[in-house]
């Protein structure tokens, strides 16, 4: 065993104990059994429940075989002589007939020892010993048993509560090598390889393995290889499904973003048209209000024409944006023009700009007169009912 494997062994044992102590194994076993019960009988063999333990027991010179958890004996045979075929040891015929329907990949054989040849001791150990329970049990061998570690095969298992605070209970199971080695030799002589050596408890087994690790047979597990391949295929399919789902989401997102961009462009066009409409409406309202609050030029010309005498004529008539009106012309009596414009409702503040000068060519007086357009006042707002008048 390499150094890396030895360093990982406590962690693996801790994970294994935590898994066994959790309710998940029982739940998964029940769930798998219920699912297998719904399958056709022919298909149930393809979905086996795992290891199928069969128990071997030896009494005198007679061997017996039964299934774990059942009291019925499936086969029995005598030690007899070594059974060989062309020098190759083969299991007894009775054993082969009893196990011919059992899947060889699931078949597990356990040799059960009678309680009389097995020594059991209960140990109270600190919690720190959980990670190296088997090694600690080896250290306790000399104190708990009359044997040394080299004289026995042993196993240790953790017991359930109750226990003192900071400690846990464990059981040490010991069998002497002189007791077990002859039984294993007889089985090897008959061509039988066992997967575990355990203690008989009722119709089942205690749950420990006294067989040395170097003697545990190595079994090929093609189903495990197939399961690993199927698991890898499932993971690959899951990754492909997730990738396809992500790709579809990205495509949908890109399509939505394109639609949003198109709608944003349309919204900007609508906003621009709305702003243009508001600007046009404001300009039209401004012009209408300006026209309403401004004296019409035609009315102004008509009023000036009606008030000036026939002997006066204008050379220039101008009105600027501020409402300033300019009159330039000639009249026989220019000074009387102010009296003619005094009662006008459209023109106010009439006055001469500069001096009045006679024109020798026409014999009239040349003048330049300024005035202001009398703009109409905007309508006043009527005070609300109940309010005080200004």
Automatic annotation (TrEMBL):
Q: What PANTHER family does this protein map onto?
A: DNA UTILIZATION PROTEIN HOFN
Where would you find the membrane-spanning parts of this chain? 226-246
Q: Which residues form a coiled coil?
A: 253-280
Note one Pfam family from the annotation: PilN
**Could you tell me which Gene3D superfamilies the record lists for this protein?**
3.30.420.380
Family matches, as InterPro entries? ATPase_NBD (IPR043129), Extracell_DNA_Util/SecSys_Comp (IPR052534), PilN (IPR007813)
Q: Superkingdom of this entry's organism?
A: Bacteria
Which terms are listed as keywords in the entry? Coiled coil, Membrane, Transmembrane, Transmembrane helix
Query: How is this protein named in the record?
Result: General secretion pathway protein L
Q: Where is the signal peptide?
A: none
